[in-house]
């Protein structure tokens, strides 16, 4: 068992049940039951206990009336070799609303059974050592993954990408700590070597370097999990909302010929070649006396300033659009200039001059007709792939992971700074703190303060 808990919450003694498939109506409904009385429920519903891990066709009856509710497949997974570590019964039924309601009501009337809370099946798997905390988080990310890159990263975490490293690091830390403590406790014993600190410090140095390498990833794992943010900004009536709608291929933002239509931030989630991108449409940036528009401009400036990329959109048919006095450009974020509305240009006329911000790249397009949009999307896809491509192999995918590893690194740095001339008790304490931080990463030590945050986002039945 990987996870060692001080005590189990009282509700673990209950037998829980829930619909684990999608909401009805559906082709199939999966009802799961987990706990010490799961076998009794199966006997009450189908009249027998099937052979473990073999599906059997059975009639499901209401134990209170004997009436047949449905016919379907029944499976039996005795603990501890089940998904939750407890006895599990599973019914695969027709996915009609009446069928699901009838089965759940029948199970709920049995003594000692209750409906599962969100994430409770997975939480029991964690409590019973079937998953560590990083694997639980990987499962949550897998459920909510929207793109192929997110799915691959989440599956790696579910299979122990970070958890296995953390357990190995923790084991090596404990071995180094044992050397130091042996030096403290048995210094007078004849068979204890005089110099036990040197190998302990070598192990600590190796671990520090490995953890440092894991942290030096430019937050690619977190950025892939959350998605890259691209802000569409610029002066009013430049066609920002039209560009958003064209990229989203739907009417996500209201478009009118009047400046200042967009007052709030509008977000659209895109999948660019398997990578997640959030495109943000912001209010037109200009001086204004309108209080609502002022707030929209403030939000636009704040959101664009925090984006990974800014698309600065101007009306190519107009002279002197808003200049670079916005607080957005020049803050280190890459900026691409988008010359929109080229369909309004007279090819024989002189092009209007524009006081525009310096940009890394420039594109000319028409959000109305779609001319030039393919080039922008292709370049944007390349940009996103370059920024997130290495994220799939990153070990750190959440801020919680980074914080725990940073605490481990700091403790190891402190221990190594003490060196071989330090008091063994102080060195041992720093190694203990490093091991504890790694234990918090996987859930080996008390992490009750983060459990509710992690499991509240799970759906009921998972």
Description of the molecule:
Helix content is 41%, strand content 17%. By secondary structure, it is α/β, with parallel strands linked by helices. It folds into 3 domains: 10-131, Probable tRNA modification gtpase trme, domain 1 (Gyrase A, domain 2), CATH 3.30.1360; 136-217 and 395-442, tRNA modification GTPase MnmE domain 2 (Four Helix Bundle (Hemerythrin (Met), subunit A), Up-down Bundle), CATH 1.20.120.430; 226-391, Rossmann fold, CATH 3.40.50. The strands form 2 sheets. The protein has a 6-stranded mixed beta sheet. A hairpin with a 2-residue loop joins β8 (266-272) and β9 (275-281). α4 packs antiparallel against α5. The longest helix is centred in the middle third of the chain and has 25 residues, at 161-185.
Please state the oligomeric state of the protein chains shown.
single chain
The CATH H-level superfamily of the largest domain is: P-loop containing nucleotide triphosphate hydrolases
Classify the fold: give the CATH topology of the largest domain: Rossmann fold
What's the architecture of the largest domain in CATH terms? Answer: 3-Layer(aba) Sandwich
Mean pLDDT: 83
Give me the strand/helix succession: EEHEEEHEHHHHHHEHEEHEEEHHHH
Number of helices: 14
> How many individual domains?
3
Percentage of residues in strands: 15-25%
Sequence of strands across the biggest β-sheet: 3-4-5-2-1-6
Instruction: Tell me the Rg in angstroms.
Output: 29 Å
- Largest sheet data: 6 strands, mixed
Helix and strand composition category? alpha/beta
Distance between the termini: 21 Å
Instruction: Estimate the helix proportion, in percent.
Output: 40-55%
Uncertain stretches of 5 or more adjacent residues = 1-12, 253-263, 320-326
Query: How many DSSP-defined strands?
Result: 12
CATH class identity of the largest domain:
Alpha Beta
What spatial form do the alpha-carbon principal axes imply? flat
